[in-house]
Amino acid sequence: MAEGLIVAFHPPAVLDRQRLRRAWQRAAPTMSAPEGLLAQMGQPLLERLDDIRLTPTRILELGDRSGQMARQLQKRWPKAQVCALAPFPGLGPPPSRGLPWQRRPWQLVGEARRLPFARGQFDLVISSMALHWSSDLPAALREVRRVLAADRLFLFTVAGSESLQELHACLAQWDRERGGGSWPRQLPLPSLAGLGDLLTASGFVLPVVDRDRLSLPIPDLPWLLRQLRAMGAGNHMRNRSQGLGGRGCVRRLEQLYDQEFRQRDNSLHCTLELLFGHAWKGLDKSHPG
């Protein structure tokens, strides 16, 4: 079962990384805001550290886009060396100016599927809503395990397969109305059960996965689209439809969203599924990484 899942989550170069880089760099000011959605989604992940007995000396914050989590980790463990690895240059705020004797996070650039670190370097790897953008989740998980020291912790969140299901249903209806096929609009996202299988297949031990399935109230569809753009989210697939877009598309999608998902109390909602996971690197000789 796990082998089949790895195939399913290893699509052939479907992500347009140049388009993703441009979108994230444009959204960098809003992504780095302390009150922004990225910071809010990272807070529950940090709170889970309160229940874990761990005093790390080297920490990797994987997929950094705002700098918020790296600073919180440095504040929690002031003597630790925190590495904040961003997928592209130009993300996050400029380095903060602390006192000369205070440690500050290192800001680096690199891909999750090819981490630029030696084996066994970190006591904690933490990642908030970033790994699903790697386009090769199994490779990213194997790399995380490789750079972790033995008996050390991996803690993360990713978007689940039910995220934005209302929006994707409207987009599929729009495709049908235009008489064309359904265009791919997002990377394959893991389910709760599939994520646990992937962790086990990648060589982690004692994996625990759970989820928060949130129904978020929204004023209207354009507001939701603006929030997604502010996070750098969007259709960043290589074979995306070039003819889809414009005001006419947004107006029709707004009509469909209102028709299909308006609640009895006259409110609109969107679904956001956050998958939480933590696992440990053991000493399994069948996974020498």
Cα gyration radius (Å): 20 Å
Poorly predicted segments: 1-13
Q: What structural class is derived from the secondary structure elements?
A: alpha/beta
Biggest sheet statistics: 7 strands, mixed
Second CATH tier, the architecture of the domain at 2-163 and 187-215 and 273-281: 3-Layer(aba) Sandwich
Overall description:
The protein is α/β, with parallel strands linked by helices. It has a domain at 2-163 and 187-215 and 273-281: 3-Layer(aba) Sandwich (Rossmann fold), CATH 3.40.50.150. It has 10 helices and 7 strands. It has helices spanning 2-8, 17-26, 28-31, 37-47, 68-76, 137-147, 165-177, 192-201, 221-230, 246-261; strands spanning 58-62, 81-86, 106-109, 122-128, 148-159, 204-218, 268-281. A 7-stranded mixed sheet has the order 3-2-1-4-5-7-6, sandwiched between helices. Helix 1 (2-8) crosses helix 8 (192-201). The longest helix is centred in the C-terminal third of the chain and has 16 residues, at 246-261. The chain starts with a helix and ends in an 8-residue tail after the last strand. Mean pLDDT is 81; it is low at 1-13.
